[in-house]
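Let's practice the habit of predicting before peeking. Look at the sequence and jot down your guess about where helices and strands might fall. Then scroll down.
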Amino acid sequence: MASAKLTLPAPTGPYRVGVVDLRIVDKSRPDPVAGPGHFRELMTSVWYPARETARYQLAPWMPPASWGPYVTDQGFDPGVFQPPLTSGHTGAPVLRTERRLPVVVYSHGAHSHRSDNTVVAQELASHGYAVVTIDHTYDAWVAFPDGRVLSPSFTVPMTPKDFAADARSVLDAIEDLAAGRNPDADGRQLPDGLAHALDPRRIGMFGWSKGGTATAYTMLTDDRVRAGLSFDGPMAPQITTDLNRPFMDMTAVFTRADDPDVALFWSHLKGWRLNVQADGAAHSCYSDAESLIPQVARILGMSQQDVESYVGTLDPAEGVHMQQAYPRAFFDLHLRGRRSHLLDGPSPAFPDVKFLP
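Done guessing? Here is the structure:
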């Protein structure tokens, strides 16, 4: 029997989307796990508005080499599903624009991978952003160009501060791209127009779960990030420093009411801040699971109770639309100066989204 095809929702923006993978090696950070002479090594993807896509293949959601181990770890048979195709065309030339592209960095959740919020990444790219997603090595399902495939390690400690250090390595690579240099450790050719296309003065960051906490840590240690967004991040108790730049918290499980660390972090936000929460949302609603799990359930005949154990009771269509709309409105405001009424208060388009005082 042929394996079933999973799909991702198409982005809503006016631009076609390109994507390229880059291997980043930070020679200022030795890698004690890999041994002497080895340095911190990260796989990243850069998503961007594309000029022309007809000759460029669509990228899969995950590399095939890491798809099988990841799906098996999630308790499913990888032979039953084909990884969804994204809207990103591999290596397509970058759209020429009057201004450089604002940049958003993405940090994934614990024991996950850089593709787990592809819906948001390609949505932002379709509206004119460059989005750089990071695999946090030793806490990610990651495939390297030389054939190595690593899974999350339970013996190598990877904290949100380690994720934040990775983000700072990627910020350095963004500055390289902005200056016209190629940060790919293998020297592979960049898509036409990517050099000099990114704006290092307009950088935001978002993350899901541990990546949301890492977003906060990154902003506290690196002022290159002008605005941050957390998807249900469990803020660590060590965050006791004031942050005066814009921050938005989209919560589900790790709420101010239920988690003292989140409440403490909120009290240290001294700039623009916003906390929204969707009734019925589960932790995984702020990831591509919101789109993929209902499809998996139909294929496997999972019960509604099983589905709700993954993604809660929030209507999946509203959940996906929420993923697309709120991050874009946030970064539009703080990186582009474009105001959206979506951030002013409750919207009839999102009846389950509540604004928390």
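How did you do? The chain has one domain: 4-356.
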